[in-house]
Amino acid sequence: MFSRTDRSILGDWWWTVDRTMLTGLGMLAVLGVIIVFAASPPVAATLGLDGSFFITKHVIFLLPAAALMFGASVLAPRGVLRLGLLMMALFGFMLVLAPFFGAEIKGARRWISVAGTPLQPSEFVKPALAVVTAWLLSRRQGLWGMPESLLVAGAVIGLLLMQPDLGMVAIVGLVYMIQLFVAGLPWIVVVVAAVLAAGGAFLAYEAFPHVQSRVDMFLDPETVGYQVEKALRAVASGGLFGRGPGEGVEKFLLPDAHTDFVFAAAAEEFGIFFCLIIVALFLSLLLRGIWRVHEAGDRFVQLAATGLVCQFGLQALINMAVNLNLMPTKGMTLPFISYGGSSMLALALGMGMLLALTRRNARLES
């Protein structure tokens, strides 16, 4: 597409960006359009909307998402840091407002209205935090930057607990611990942190009734939640090759077939083999990202890219595990496949920053 001697912004971007990772993300987006197109009409009909309502909005959101991903991917590491700081300031402020002024949905206040459009600030704070903590850790050798980074991460976790959003707390906390480990955290501290995290999980179980009910339902073999039961029926009825596009039955009884349980809807209509392709695609992107992190020669790039790629992999893992009843239910989308507005845009920004950080010879000092 571009000559190797082309020194324009686009030319330089084309020859330095990881085109394998870019292609994989594009494939996920295409698969998402196909699956949402098949899974969303029954949900729209249940809500009294036109059958094409969700797929139309999904495609419309893909356009700015693609623009945001490209815009972030052309940045130098210094630009990624500035973008992360800006996102942390803007959406961090919204995160402070959410528990007080956000709309209450299922007992939590995670959404805030911006110009009449619902927005989940935590989705944007998540990638920004990975970049900011990486910068704070990379400014000094070893773990001397840990106190400042811990202060920022702790503040975000505290705000998430106020909503409450324990699933996001788990992802943010785990990703931060992975960054600390990459930065040089000893194994003994990792073990202690894991014990403390287990204690925190028990306290959350005792403090939040909705968490307690979800965990009890998950642990009780005689009780399965309505959505999980329908999701498992959808997976089982699809078999190896699925019922065929538009032929699903369980999706009519699955309220979140286009969002949280889109993986189960895909299994019913396209089969287990198709879902294995999705899993393989996510796994290949995760491994590709880890490999590029391993090749990075800059400490900030290494830590920030580690956080971003781990966030991406953990979100996909949690969504698929919930669909297969391997962990308690958690409202979390499947990256670039589930229908979603703020989630799609935040993921696009996060992956755009990852593409920027994994470009050839990316260094913060340059």
From TrEMBL:
This entry's Enzyme Commission designation comes to 2.4.99.28
Question: What is the name listed in the Swiss-Prot or TrEMBL entry for this protein?
Answer: Probable peptidoglycan glycosyltransferase FtsW
Give the UniProt subcellular location, in the record's own words.
Membrane
What molecular functions are annotated in GO for this chain? Answer: lipid-linked peptidoglycan transporter activity; peptidoglycan glycosyltransferase activity
Catalytic reaction(s) noted:
[GlcNAc-(1->4)-Mur2Ac(oyl-L-Ala-gamma-D-Glu-L-Lys-D-Ala-D-Ala)](n)-di-trans,octa-cis-undecaprenyl diphosphate + beta-D-GlcNAc-(1->4)-Mur2Ac(oyl-L-Ala-gamma-D-Glu-L-Lys-D-Ala-D-Ala)-di-trans,octa-cis-undecaprenyl diphosphate = [GlcNAc-(1->4)-Mur2Ac(oyl-L-Ala-gamma-D-Glu-L-Lys-D-Ala-D-Ala)](n+1)-di-trans,octa-cis-undecaprenyl diphosphate + di-trans,octa-cis-undecaprenyl diphosphate + H(+)
Protein topology in the membrane: Multi-pass membrane protein
This protein's GO cellular component annotations are:
cell division site; plasma membrane
* Assigned keywords, A-Z: Cell shape, Glycosyltransferase, Membrane, Peptidoglycan synthesis, Transferase, Transmembrane, Transmembrane helix
Q: Please verify whether the record's keywords include rRNA processing.
A: no
What is the predominant subcellular site recorded for this chain?
Answer: membrane
BP term (GO), one: cell division
Which parts of the chain span the membrane according to its record? 21-39, 59-76, 83-101, 150-178, 185-205, 270-291, 303-324, 336-357
Class of enzymatic activity (EC top level): transferase
For this chain, the family text in UniProt reads: Belongs to the SEDS family. FtsW subfamily.
